[in-house]
């Protein structure tokens, strides 16, 4: 549903969640800035992931490695030689497409059976790196360029997705370095540092959140595919031979995490990879049904000892672990979980976004509400004095002062209470509290719940605890 997707994008802009980067200069393609509420939402998702991974797992620790890394790392990881996508250019429009996206886009317009057959053919060809075959598939199906409507294609070629820059003075010894295209390598190269200093025993994990950069060619899907984005990755180091059970464990554990975000389980699914890297034992994606269809949010990969072995070879440093339980030295195997923070925010926004018709034939009315789980909502509590006099603002500010030490609150005294509710609905604030004259008499306030729009009176003294409890749910 493209309309819903567009509505979410507009809403994100109108309410201070996400802006196009460099907007006053007409924007920078596939780069975005998070506004006041988007930054809070993103921080809450990041913190929730971080806590679930590190605080909730005694054998997982977090690190924060640099974006710039020694260039040989990207040789060892295979990114210099292999981090590329097969692309094709349309000769008339000069537009470049990722071959799989082009074919998938076309397949979406076909009846289900034909679509499946075409995708299967494509996956076979991709698996065999059969570029002439892919070109032929595009030509045989008369797949058109979306811009020029023509079918005039170049050959299929590979383009590396890494951004590069020069470190130090360019004139001297020009040293090309890359902006990391994933955070994982910072974990691999610190494997021994963390294992030794943290006295970590296998099985154990290292988690990290940070920026990654990819020169994506097709980048027209809002924060789903960006050129600068944030990843949340975790590498779990295990004894060789235990990879199947740990893979199964993390596959399930990560799905549970997604469900704990309050997502409808019917909108989540696994997608097994048809095409595996030569070293990989298994790989699966967790997909979410965005308004634009089921798409990958997270990957879980069983990577054997490939990455550490590569770094051992390229660095000449031993990447071994001595397992005291079995008295053996080995290079650990790795299960990796890798999720995009921005994609995750888009998923949470898509799930939360709702347009509701609340009107009657006599009195039309509607609202847009973001039904975030309380723990992810940018603002947890809005505090409204009913009027600007009679000591009500003072009481409201006392409540603010008490609550804002513990969670993000918002104070507002302008406009009718109804209007104030609607503004909070649009940014997803789960609770609004109104202080009125009765508060002065009996110490109660009206709390209004975002989703049900129901209101009830509760003691002023219990507001903070009520919100705290919901945030931890
Ligand atoms: P895709 O097939 O969508 O390009 P990928 O398989 O290349 O993704 P990975 O390399 O496995 O992705 O990266 C792990 C996660 O990082 C992805 O599941 C996704 O959530 C996120 N991610 C990857 N590329 C981007 C991007 N360009 N913009 C936003 N998030 C991204």
Summary keywords:
binds adenosine-5'-triphosphate, alpha+beta, BirA Bifunctional Protein, domain 2, five-stranded mixed β-sheet, nucleotide-binding, Glycine--tRNA ligase, seven-stranded mixed β-sheet, 23 strands, 16 helices, bis(5'-nucleosyl)-tetraphosphatase (asymmetrical) activity, Rossmann fold, 26% strand, 473 residues
Please provide a written account of the structure.
It is found in: Cytoplasm. One of its GO terms (molecular function) is glycine-tRNA ligase activity. Catalyzes the attachment of glycine to tRNA(Gly). The chain has 473 residues and is of the alpha+beta class. Among the domains are: 37-72 and 181-349, Bira Bifunctional Protein, Domain 2 (BirA Bifunctional Protein, domain 2), CATH 3.30.930; 379-472, Rossmann fold. 36% of the residues lie in helices and 26% in strands. The chain has 16 helices and 23 strands. The protein has helices spanning 2-14, 36-55, 71-76, 79-82, 99-107, 112-127, 131-140, 184-188, 191-197, 243-259, 306-315, 341-352, 392-403, 417-427, 437-442, 463-472, and strands at residues 18-20, 32-34, 60-63, 84-89, 96-98, 157-160, 164-167, 175-178, 204-213, 228-238, 268-272, 282-290, 293-302, 321-323, 328-330, 333-340, 353-357, 366-370, 381-385, 409-411, 431-435, 444-449, 455-459. The strands form 7 sheets. Strands 3-9-10-16-13-12-11 form a 7-stranded mixed sheet, with helices on both faces. A hairpin with a 2-residue loop joins β12 (282-290) and β13 (293-302). The longest helix is centred in the first third of the chain and has 20 residues, at 36-55. The protein is globular, with a radius of gyration of 26 Å. Adenosine-5'-triphosphate binds at residues 182, 214, 216, 225-226, 229, 231, 296-299, 338-340, 342-343.
